[in-house]
């Protein structure tokens, strides 16, 4: 399967996930207004963080090594047994922590200790969520993008139905509860779909720790945690700086444009993750690697550039549709953000070489360095250009990240892709 077919299937799954998220946000806004949407955002942030930690942050590692070992049954068995054990151990640890601190977490994140029971449900659900991540990573590793898209579509539909029912009965609490239980519904769809695949074997559900495989997965855990934890922390610092310098209303304009950017780029980043991570991991010939990177650039960069131009041309309508007329000043912020988006995808295509070839130390150092440079650039650029400087900082930082990845690819392949 080529990138176009993989991209089409991943787009279907991504559209289903985005549609489900939009329905949930609209539902919460209708039930509880802006305050409810704020609580939903906080709860989703906690869920995202726990999902990465509960699975041990090894999903990318499972994808890489399944793609690499799928023709080696002995090593594949050792890998999956260790991965499942690693994920279950991590999820149990996170569940115990969430249960222990349920009340303070509810008071801090949701502003009401009465939501502690919701945190407890989330804690217990960590085992199921870790298993969902494991199943999806294995399917992704075998590059079974159609089955993956089917699971995403069916899981999203069931999640929306559950949210509508629980919100009707329990209002905001029910909608938040549906966010948790909806993840378990993905398991109801994912497990049967996996069992019916031609590559499923009962041994893939066996738990056994293998020292070599556990060390390899731990390296990916470090990479995943650095990429999962640093961006939210840096964005919190950026929001605080922008709020202090320009006020929270201006922060809202910045956040609106960033949300639009995240939404349409999700189609491209998902395609890269689903197709190129296993593809690069399973490719050992360096000339073939160069050809894959070249093919990705030829397909994805024109597509993201056209998408960015379309968003810019329709920015007034997009802002009105997704937000309201009160967000009209955000229209002046799109240009540098969209330029940065194109550079970001170019850098991401190349950066997956570090993930695919397990360059752990280099990847983690790069994540830390460019998180710090982004924050520093925000301070410098906003002092010079005002609020648009935050978008300029985004574009300049990814330009530096692109240059860094060009050097990494050049050193690893001995040349740059044409």
TrEMBL record:
Q: Which CDD domains match?
A: MATE_like_10
Please give one Pfam family short name: Polysacc_synt
Give the top-rank taxon of the lineage listed in the UniProt record for this protein: Bacteria
Q: Which GO terms describe its biological process?
A: enterobacterial common antigen biosynthetic process
- What stretches pass through the bilayer? 7-31, 43-67, 79-102, 114-136, 148-170, 176-196, 217-238, 258-278, 299-322, 334-355, 362-380, 386-409
Q: Which InterPro entries match?
A: Poly_Biosynth_Transport, Polysacc_synth, WzxE
What PANTHER family does the record point to?
A: LIPID III FLIPPASE, PST FAMILY PREDICTED COLANIC ACID TRANSPORTER
Name under which the protein is recorded: Lipopolysaccharide biosynthesis protein
Task: State the organism of origin.
Answer: Luteibacter yeojuensis
Lineage, broadest ranks? Bacteria, Pseudomonadati, Pseudomonadota, Gammaproteobacteria, Lysobacterales
